[in-house]
Specification:
This protein is mainly β. It has two domains: about 100 residues, Porin MspA (Ig-like beta-sandwich domain) (Immunoglobulin-like, Sandwich), CATH 2.60.40.1650; about 60 residues, no CATH class. The chain is about 5% helix and about 70% strand. The chain is built from one helix and nine strands, in the order ββαβββββββ. Strands 2, 5, 7, 8 and 9 form a five-stranded antiparallel beta sheet that branches. Strands 1-6 form a two-stranded antiparallel sheet. A hairpin with a 5-residue loop joins strand 3 and strand 4. The longest helix has 5 residues.
Length: about 160
């Protein structure tokens, strides 16, 4: 439920040409994917309520196993809580989780130099995974051509249409 997977492959081609005596010192073509998701799970908080907490009682550990609360995700994507307390003490545990905003990340997957004014880079079929994602997620391809010459430096980026995953 919190994992999104997409199988991607792509190819980008660049041709650099122009009139003038300035030659490229350096040029690179980068191909990748921009990945974004809307909501991420935040920290889990435990609240303890009960007679022992209200009175500030500190039970004697020699009278039984220590109190503890264990929280673990199950295979259905939800959380399970297990509370073990000292004998004779009633506790009401509560669990809450704050959600945080998601993020967008650039994931470069291929890079190649421009030689004789041309470059071609490709990505074979590859898995892109987003973990700990709640709500919608999207992915889109991009290609970025960066050039440096004696006259100017330039960057050109081209983005594909976003696809929901």
């Amino acid at each position: 439920m919190t994992r999104r997977v997409a199988v991607v492959s792509d190819e980008a081609y660049a041709a650099v040409s122009g009139i003038g005596s300035t030659r490229l010192k350096e040029a690179t073509l980068v191909l990748g994917y921009q990945v974004g998701y809307a909501i991420a799970p935040g920290p889990i908080q435990l609240q303890m309520q009960g007679l022992a907490m209200a009175l500030g009682v500190n039970p004697d550990p020699s009278k039984g196993d220590p109190s503890r609360i264990v929280v673990r995700p199950n295979r259905h994507g939800s959380l399970e809580a297990e509370a073990t307390v000292y004998p004779g003490i009633e506790l009401s545990p509560g669990i809450s989780e704050a959600l945080t905003t998601g993020a967008i990340a650039d994931v470069p997957l291929a890079r190649g130099p421009v030689r004789d004014g041309q470059a071609l880079v490709g990505i074979p079929p590859t898995d892109v995974e987003i973990d700990d994602c709640l709500g919608p997620a999207a992915i889109r391809s991009y290609a970025v051509l960066t050039t440096k010459s004696g006259l100017a430096d330039d960057t050109i980026a081209v983005y594909g249409d976003p696809a929901t995953i």
